[in-house]
Specification:
Order of helices and strands: EEEEEEEEEEHEHEHEEEHEEEE
Largest sheet: 9 strands, mixed
Shape: globular
Radius of gyration: 18 Å
Strand content: 35-45%
Number of strands: 19
Helix content: 10-25%
Amino acid sequence: MLQELNVYPLKSARGITRPSVRLSATGLEWDRHWMVVREDGTFLTQRTHPRLASIATRLTSEALLLDGEGRETLVLPLEPQGERQPVRIWKDLCEGLDQGDAAAQWVSAVLDEPVRVVRAPPAPRRLASPEFTGNQPAPLAFPDGYPVLMCSRASLEDLNRRLPEALPMERFRPNLVIEGLPPFAEDRIATIQIGAVTLRLVKPCTRCIIPSTDQRTGVRGFDPLPVLRTFRFDPTLRGVTFGENAVIVAGIGATLERGAECRVTYEN
């Protein structure tokens, strides 16, 4: 069953849990369509700037709203606007639309350093790595590398039994949370079908320091990586994995509903 649907409009800011979400060509609608960058266009995340988690996000039919403690709400129109500028996400060079001085000043005040805010252009040309997606192009807005991130509730419960303190799922920032699978069954899943939507799981998600960050306050806390490393280290990817990245096979334009039945196929 599809237990959670989460959208993160501003990359590395607080997410929004939705009862239903339309699936677009780049993933869940409006997911990671805005991003904070240094003045040279390099992307910023909670890896180096955990206070990004203190920025709350809301979506209306016309705008993305950003809220921060003691600050007036920042309104960013959904309608694409702004001057194009080059931005960098890891090794990917792509384009963003600058959201203006007011947005830059608002987020700069939260982070206490000069930054800019960009949004994805209407038809992003950035693609997920063909090393894992194969011949199926997967367009991206501003996620780290893939359109959709899926996590399993049972896998988190398994991890929490090994930890001195339980962590909420929001620490891992998934788009989809699936209930009803055995722990870490996602390692062997080939596809997930949810109504008209079919997703293909293409790469385990390697983890960084972000799961140690409280997604309400932006304060670092307990880091689960040392425990995960004892049983979730992938020597091929040279990293600790939790969750699976997915690409869209079918269903662009369809609506995903929380509580929907999920059908999985496993790798041969």
